[in-house]
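User: Okay, second chain of the day. Same drill as before: sequence in, structure tokens out.
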Amino acid sequence: MSRIGKLPIPIPAGVTVTVKDGAVTVKGPKGAPQTFGYHPNMRVESDGKQLTVKRPDDDRLNRALHGLTRALLNNMVVGVTAGYEKKLKIEGVGFQAAMDGKAVVLTVGYANRIRHEPPEGVAVAVPDPTTIVVTGTDKQKVGQFAAEVRASRKPEPYKGKGIRYEGEVVRRKEGKSFAAGK
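Assistant: Same drill. Structure tokens below.
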């Protein structure tokens, strides 16, 4: 039995879960309702207080889908109650971010500024010029948008300049003059 898949998902107060026609709809205090169409091999049951995911047998595909389905449903419940947040830090002289409407505009050492429009359901805030905060109820969309912003200028290993996640450690390398032993 999958250790993750067999765990029930508690449904907090204020969250409504509807299981119907191979899809689960989760509605909560934060944001719009989210819908997930699960694999036909899985059975999702709700008793009002918790969600459970069951599999028909120990086939390899069903074992894989068991934990995956439970994890995705749990992410939806957490998203509509607490939400998700990713913080990005910008390092480098003259590197900064600014808001232009809903979009974030990056000045990160290129000739042009880079503009990123967040997808539906994702909000971006720039509390100071070197910090970007991405929030939303869908874990996948929040992580994908944060990854796209980070990919604009990944942190380089020699000076550490670029965009990184808060708390991310970038391994630094020595330069050529240090390696030559002069």
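Helices lie at 60-81, 139-151, 176-180.

User: Thanks, on to the next one.
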